[in-house]
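Researcher: I'd like a structural prediction for the single chain below. Treat it as a standalone chain; there are no partners to consider.
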Amino acid sequence: MAHSSARGRLIAVIGDEDTCTGFLMGGIGEVNRHRQPNFLVVDKATSIAEIEDGFKALVTRDDIAIILINQHIAEMIRHIIDVYTQPIPAVLEIPSKEHPYDPAKDSILRRARGMFSAEDLR
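Model: Treating it as a single chain, here is the predicted structure.
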């Protein structure tokens, strides 16, 4: 953990080409000492197994603080995301150019709503 605490933690992205390109142009791209990037570009040729493996690899890295994932891609591996409960790295679902964000599908938001009653939100 000395490596990540000395340099800070990273944001990782699992997304379509446009999303990953935008974040990479914004400066989030990094390759760790094991030559593993902090992003996964998902296209039509990417299998669900590859997405699952990429997600599992990112959540086990100690240099990742947040994983941004396009919501339509998160839907493909919902069975894994729903059982992931660790606070760090936090998993945040984001929209893509072709797929708008749907709060009803966001597992993190559903869990957060379950923590509060209607009276807590007044």
